[in-house]
Specification:
alpha+beta; Pre-protein croslinking domain of SecA; 3-stranded antiparallel β-sheet; protein transport; cell membrane; ATP binding; membrane
């Protein structure tokens, strides 16, 4: 890909294909409309690959240790053990770094800290 095939927004850490990028992808995958709902999974994977290569950086956003991609907390700089980037981005980073690609984990539930703490009558510490 060339720089005129995509547009990067570093503030939001997003990447979008330009018309030239869309045409290149459609030609490469031999499809007519990349934005057709039937190709949503493909578009998502393309964007994850681009984000992994052009936005996410080793030793800043993540580390590679012993064949694993580990997330670095952007606020504390600490490694977030047992955590993965979601929606296939982690697997795109693993492919970028040429380490073993682990299956995606499923999020079974989410809760805000505020609601989590409401589950307890008393909190200390």
């Amino acid at each position: 890909l060339k720089k005129n095939h995509y547009i990067i927004d570093l503030e939001t850490k997003t990447i979008e294909l330009t018309e030239k990028g869309i045409n290149k992808a459609e030609n490469f995958f031999q499809i007519n409309n990349l934005y057709n709902i039937n190709h949503a999974h493909l578009l998502h994977r393309i964007k994850n690959a681009l984000k992994a290569f052009f936005i996410m950086h080793n030793n800043k956003d993540y580390l590679v240790v012993k064949d694993k991609v580990l997330i670095i907390d952007e606020f504390t700089g600490r490694i977030l053990k047992g955590r993965q980037f979601s929606n296939g981005l982690h697997q795109a980073l693993e492919a970028k770094e040429r380490v073993t690609i682990e299956p995606e984990t499923n999020i079974s539930a989410t809760i805000t800290y505020q609601n989590f703490f409401r589950l307890y009558k008393k909190i200390s510490g």
